[in-house]
Records
---
Amino acid sequence: MGWFSRKPRSRFPDDMTDRLAMLGRFELDVFGSGEDSTEIFPYCIQPFWPDAQEDPAGFVADLLEFIQGDDTGFATYGASRLVRELIGDEAVLKSPDSLALLDAGIEFKRMRNLPTAMLTGHEWGRWLDVHGPDTWPHGRPHPPV
């Protein structure tokens, strides 16, 4: 019957989408995001450190599930960056869930026609591993300088 069936409680706070989007905006454009840099660590990163250290694979899996349906992409990019901030175990970083978050973060930038200079080193390395060199779309032409 389902009288007592309820959705399991998320390990994340109710405002997690806002926190991830804030981190994503900040990481994408530190100076132009409008985010207060003094709030990033205590609000977006530090609260999740204990959980990520206790169960890194579970944390990443839950984060990947959490961002499904993100319509702006900023929470997705924030989730991708949060994993890189909190997880040091290379085996976890190379897991399918971590790579799916990384790929989603890369796709967020690709869909915005950003140049490869806007990719972090591990993002660019992942792109090259998956797609090879000379495959990044160059996007809109930039105005002459």
---
Amino acid sequence: MAERGSLAYEARYGWNGKTIRGVVISAVFTGLLLLPGMPLYARILGLPLFGGGALFMTYVARSHKVAFRVDDTGVLLGGSPARYGATTVHVPWDDITGFVLWRQVTGKASVPYVGVSRREGAPALPGDGPRSRAVLSALTPVPADIAIASRAVTGWRLDQERLVSAVAHFAPGVPVTEYPRA
């Protein structure tokens, strides 16, 4: 999180319940795959999946990189820890018209997201293109513009109260809404 007493809101990648469960489950499956008598094909497929998954989740949690930040300059949408520099983007306040909290349904579960809506004519963000817009329009419940300027709340915690407080401080009048609106 941001410095104590700071008005900025910052969330970093770290350990949480989902990450711990994922690492433990992956480690258990990895251990089972190493037992004698396990078929070779199961090891070939399972060890990279579960062993690699556990290692990657551990790397993400231990990276403590900024996942999301709201401060006097705007919003930092932290990228994937594996390609942090290439996938992190800063959106200045002049381009922001609102914040959107939304969920992507994935079967019986859903993944929370936080995104920004941006003014018309704002510079394109990385990953913005006709193909990605077509895919996002078909797969997400929010407009493609918002999906492109969103980050999944995985590997970090979103404190909605602190987010709303920081937005009210740095950009009074910029709304923070949940999608779909209740």
